[in-house]
Write a structure and sequence with these properties.
Length: about 280
């Protein structure tokens, strides 16, 4: 059943009533569902299993939440409340790195977050707050507004991709009872066929796989390096030449950095953004 997005907004954003001492409540349902997903992943989550965990009938849950999809949205927003605010760092990179690491720790604690796929999951207040923190780390840099949004999106998708890899590895290990290292270590029939590939053979003989880089740490650092390089380039443009025509800029009387050399260039840039 396709969920009603407007109903999802109401569920996620409405003020919670005081939880009753006994009986069923939405918060109890969400907490039980989180515990179940932490143990079994999203594949093991069902309304029936949540009801059994709480000692109620499945139908009684539907008086509080319309279905599993709405429940997953509520679970996501509930665990994102565990994400402490990063606080004001000394610079954008420190702040963005802190937000990214907190998001990574949260996904290690609740791996099923990475299993929530699709582009039409309605965000709740805590999800929006986490996104706002990421945007806030980059707001005020030399990046254009669209680049702030794009950079935050790239970092967020990287974190989710790393978390999904972790989930898939753990799932295979539970299914097979064999660790990732043991499984690949037993693939001699494959390795015997790889000596014809020069680059791979060179890296193998040089010990490239003996001490692999931490993929999250390496990837995050390289992403931040790329964003830093773009900010530096934008700073040079902002402080040196007109962002529209390239004419060298005169210092502004106000002391604020100039982006355009004239009102005409500013208007041309605005019209291009509107039609682009």
């Amino acid at each position: 059943m396709t969920q009603d997005p407007d109903h999802a907004v109401e569920l996620l954003w409405r003020e919670r009533e005081r939880e009753p001492r006994q009986g069923l409540s939405l918060d109890r349902i969400v907490r039980a569902a989180i515990e179940l997903a932490d143990a079994e992943g999203l594949a093991g989550l069902s309304m029936r299993k949540v009801a059994d965990r709480l000692g109620f009938t499945t139908m009684s849950l539907y008086r509080h939440v319309p279905g599993r999809d709405h429940l997953v949205d509520l679970m996501r927003d509930a665990v994102l409340a565990e994400h402490p605010e990063a606080g004001a760092g000394s610079d954008w990179r420190t702040r963005l790195e802190a937000v990214a690491r907190q998001a990574w720790r949260l996904r290690r604690r609740h791996p099923w977050l990475a299993e929530i796929r699709g582009t039409r999951h309605v965000p709740g207040p805590h999800a929006v707050a986490r996104y706002d923190e990421m945007l806030g780390a980059l707001t005020g840099t030399a990046l254009r507004p669209s680049e702030v949004i794009a950079a935050a999106g790239v970092v967020a998708r990287f974190i989710d991709a790393e978390a999904l890899l972790l989930v898939e590895t753990q799932r295979e290990e539970r299914r097979s009872g064999v660790s990732e290292q043991e499984w690949w270590g037993a693939r001699d029939s494959l390795y015997d066929r790889l000596d014809r590939y020069p680059a791979l053979s060179h890296l193998w003989e040089a010990g490239g796989w003996d001490h692999p880089e931490d993929s999250f740490e390496f990837g995050l650092a390289r992403l931040l390096d790329g964003i830093e390089a773009l900010i530096r380039r934008r700073d040079e443009i902002r402080d040196g030449t007109c962002g529209e025509c390239g004419t060298p800029l005169e210092p502004a009387d106000s002391g604020r950095p100039r982006v355009y050399c004239s009102r005409a260039c500013r208007q041309r840039a605005y019209r291009r953004r509107q039609t682009g």
